Amino acid sequence: MRKLTFIIVFFISSSLFSQVEIDWLKLRDVYYKSEYAEDLYGYVQIPYYGEAVEPLDNKEVTITGYMLTLSPDEGVFVLSENPYADCFFCGFGGPESAIELRLKPGYDDFLMDELVVVTGILRLKRDDVSSGVYIMDNATAIKKED
Description:
mainly beta, CATH 2.40.50.870
């Protein structure tokens, strides 16, 4: 009986704390509403997250995408659904097609547009409208094997 209890507890706890594999289609479940920001004296687009995305906030997730090495010396990396030439500010997709990465030390040696698998804590950005809508903290990235 103890053995069975241990097995059940093990599987329940591992499922609660394990990472979730996501894809870019799921991250599209976000819409924007124009709201007035007094501190900016104008209207801004505020993201609102749908049922597919909301439960991912502050969860460990894994996703595959293209590494954009925007300023590697300063630690500025972005994971994108598309290569740099096709990124959201070039016409394909929107802010939801990119994730600002905060990489752990030692995981920052990448080339532009390398296909990588990234694991980290996904945060939904609700207040800062100056950049994208997703951040991944404590992230690790590995080159995807063909």
